[in-house]
Amino acid sequence: MSSGFGMNGGRGRCFPFWQEFTKCYVQTDAPKQECKLQFEDYQECLYHRKELLRMAIVQDEYEKEQARKEHEKKP
C-alpha cells in the first residue's frame, strides 16, 4: 500500500517502489517521461502482470511440448 503499512502492520512489500516513484516524481519537471520505469516497477509489484504473463507463456510452451511428445509416442 502506498501508505507504507502492510496488511499485517509493518512495512508494505511495495512501499520501497512507491518511495522511489514519488522521489522521482518530486524531483523532475516531466514525471510522465522520466519516472516511467519507477512507475512500472511499482505497478509490477502491486499486480504482477509481467510475471503472470511470463508464467502463462512458459505453461503454454510446456503443454505444447507435452502434446508433441504424446503425439510422437502414438504409432
UniProtKB/TrEMBL annotation:
<keyword id="KW-0679">Respiratory chain</keyword>
<dbReference type="InterPro" id="IPR019342">
    <property type="entry name" value="NADH_UbQ_OxRdtase_FeS-su5"/>
</dbReference>
<keyword id="KW-0813">Transport</keyword>
<comment type="similarity">
    <text>Belongs to the complex I NDUFS5 subunit family.</text>
</comment>
<keyword id="KW-0999">Mitochondrion inner membrane</keyword>
<dbReference type="GO" id="GO:0005743">
    <property type="term" value="C:mitochondrial inner membrane"/>
</dbReference>
<keyword id="KW-0472">Membrane</keyword>
<keyword id="KW-0249">Electron transport</keyword>
<dbReference type="GO" id="GO:0032981">
    <property type="term" value="P:mitochondrial respiratory chain complex I assembly"/>
</dbReference>
<feature type="disulfide bond">
    <location>
        <begin position="24"/>
        <end position="35"/>
    </location>
</feature>
<dbReference type="GO" id="GO:0005758">
    <property type="term" value="C:mitochondrial intermembrane space"/>
</dbReference>
<keyword id="KW-0496">Mitochondrion</keyword>
<protein>
    <recommendedName>
        <fullName>NADH dehydrogenase [ubiquinone] iron-sulfur protein 5</fullName>
    </recommendedName>
</protein>
<dbReference type="Pfam" id="PF10200">
    <property type="entry name" value="Ndufs5"/>
</dbReference>
<feature type="disulfide bond">
    <location>
        <begin position="14"/>
        <end position="45"/>
    </location>
</feature>
<comment type="function">
    <text>Accessory subunit of the mitochondrial membrane respiratory chain NADH dehydrogenase (Complex I), that is believed not to be involved in catalysis. Complex I functions in the transfer of electrons from NADH to the respiratory chain. The immediate electron acceptor for the enzyme is believed to be ubiquinone.</text>
</comment>
<comment type="subunit">
    <text>Mammalian complex I is composed of 45 different subunits. This is a component of the iron-sulfur (IP) fragment of the enzyme.</text>
</comment>
<keyword id="KW-1015">Disulfide bond</keyword>
